[in-house]
Amino acid sequence: MKNISKYINTAMGRESADLILKGGNVVDVFTGTVKTADVLIKDGVICGVGSYGGENEVDVSGKYVMPSFVDAHVHIESSMVTPAEYAAAVVPHGVTTVIADPHEITNVCGTDGTDYMLAASEGTMLDVKLMLPSCVPAAPFEHAGAVLTAEDTNKIKDKFFGIGEMMNYPGILAADGETLGKLCLDKIDGHAPLVTGHELDAYASAGIKTDHECSRTDEMLEKISKGMYVLLREGTLSRDVARLAGGINGYTLRRCAFCTDDRFVGDILRSGSIDNCIRTAQSCGVSDIDAIIMASLNACEMYGLKNRGAVAPSYAADIVVADDLKLTNILMVYKDGVLAAKDGKALFEVKSADVSKVTDTVHLPEITPEFFADEMKDEFYAIELVPRAIVTKKVTAHKGDNLSKVCVIERHHNLGTKGIGYVTNYGITGGAVACSIGHDSHNVIVVGDSDADMALAVNTLGKSGGIAVCGGGEVMAYLELEIAGLMTRKSASETAKIHDELIKAARSLGVTEDVDPLLALAFLPLPVIPEIRVTDGGLFDVAKFGVI
After folding, report:
1. In the predicted model, is pLDDT for residue 254 greater than 60?
2. Residues 114-143: pLDDT tens digits?
3. Which of 177, 212, 307, 431 supports an S-S bond with 231, CB 3.0-4.6 Å?
4. Is 515:427 a contact under the CB 8 Å cutoff?
């Protein structure tokens, strides 16, 4: 139990404070105002906001003091670096808490994956609230590396903060017992793209309270009207803040927060995390303070994080000090009253965790060009990539159209299953791109216009997995992702550098400028996002929720 008398005595001047942030412009998220005040801190807790003096003062006059930020839904694995490297990247951007769903690594490694993420998240100055993945696999029409049943989920639930995004909305709508059996904790994240009307009523009736898949304001407003919270996402591929900012008003504001979902570490280093969401919302007309409220107090209240998300007495001293409300320069970040980052640099040591149970996860035979042979019909369904979005369109294609071949190969148990299809708008010529990131079951996916280069790209991945770009019979760039085929033990900066080389190589092969060469590929197997996908079982119609 906390020693409340210490906080009282500190506020009353009977005990000295550990830290006084002196003379800053304090953002009051309760009244939406800014006031000049000192912030009194003892044992990681704010004891007073007013006029104070004493030892251990830090002059922040002229600076803005605000609560630190919460990423309300993120898959750390999508950063492509370890949790420790991820923490070192996001904390300098003001993020001190993340609601993290490790369903990427769990789909590959099962509970070994969740155990790794729990262990690897310890010892940093980032508070990682780990959710228990609810959809392993995401759909019953593909092969993942593991299966978590309702029975399994209930056995390990006590290790987790809540239930991760429930992507199997058809299972919820059908009141499937196995699906409902996984809803075994109070906090349940949602995933319900374009679900509306009676179906949305049914989905919300299951106790699912959040959704990060809104792409239109009418969808956002309907979900809020059903009592749900909407997470405005600004990831690497899906960028929805600008699309949804128009739905924020004096009533809906308190039902909104920010998330990054899937954001590559290079984007975090270059343009930020939740601070980037804040700036984007501000540029779209959301008031400066309202955007900060969404990033702090709203997210904390949404997830029942008591005494967090505000600069006020009894609240945790998780604090950002910045030059202005636009966050053009974040000067200092405090976690529980301890300086965690300064001038863009993390001040804590990045430690490694044991990876022995989450490596060598790609199990494939040597792939030959003949593996990709197929009989193209005169007319068939193809996948149209939508620029800067996860969603795809189901279109009718013909022989001779400008198409790229895509193949998903089961990689967990060497089953030999594969699905072959065609995509538009990718544009690759004279080469191939392969990766072991294929949401959410993370089978190997490869796209190209040369069966020989497709085989070379897949074989380059080896047992570790990763991303390979090949052209003209040569390996042009390769990033090894030795942890579950999803993450590397390299530093964030080194990972970003190699990633840039991959992008440059893919662009040299003609990949369309408005398509992310790697992430667009990685999301093609995801069978819970409209309209059409490809899994190791073949082409998949999301609306009909079945293989074509």
Report:
1. yes
2. 999 999 998 899 999 999 999 998 777 789
3. 212
4. yes
What gap in Å lies between CA 405 and CA 483, rounded to an integer? 28
Coil/strand/helix, residue 483: strand
- What is the C-alpha to C-alpha distance for residues 183 and 42, in angstroms, rounded to an integer? 38
CA dist 528 and 190 (Å) reads 12
Average of per-residue pLDDT values in the chain: 95
Phi, psi torsion values for 307, nearest 5 degrees? 55, 40
Verify that 151 and 209 share a domain, yes or no: yes
Of 294, 305, 191, the residue nearest 241 (C-alpha): 294
For residues 284 and 403, state if they share a domain.
no
Cβ(366)–Cβ(459) below 8 Å: yes
Mean per-residue pLDDT for 379-401?
A: 89
Decide: 253 and 229 in contact? Cβ < 8 Å: no
> Over 60: is that where the pLDDT of 1 sits?
no
Q: How many domains does the chain have?
A: 2
Q: Is residue 50 part of a domain?
A: no
Instruction: Find all residues with CB under 8 Å of 27, minimum gap 6, and list them.
Output: 34, 64, 65, 66, 67, 289, 292, 311, 325
Site of tokens 């992008």: 503
The whole-angstrom separation of Cα 525 and Cα 548 is 14
> Rounded to an integer, what distance in angstroms lies between the CA atom of residue 324 and that of residue 98?
24
Q: Mean of the pLDDT values across residues 81-107?
A: 97
The predicted-structure confidence for 363-384, as pLDDT tens digits, reads as follows 999 999 999 998 888 899 999 9
Q: What is the pLDDT of residue 298?
A: 98
Q: Which residues lie closer than 8 Å to 101 by C-beta, 6 or more apart?
A: 73, 74, 75, 130, 131, 133, 164, 165, 189
For residue 292, what are the domain limits? 67-346
104 pLDDT band (50/70/90 cuts)? very high
Same domain, 337 and 410: no
| Chain Cα centroid distance, residue 50 | 37
Tell whether the torsion through CA atoms of 302, 306, 312 and 316 is positive or negative: negative
Instruction: Note the pLDDT of residue 423.
Output: 95
The DSSP 8-state label assigned to residue 120 in this structure reads H
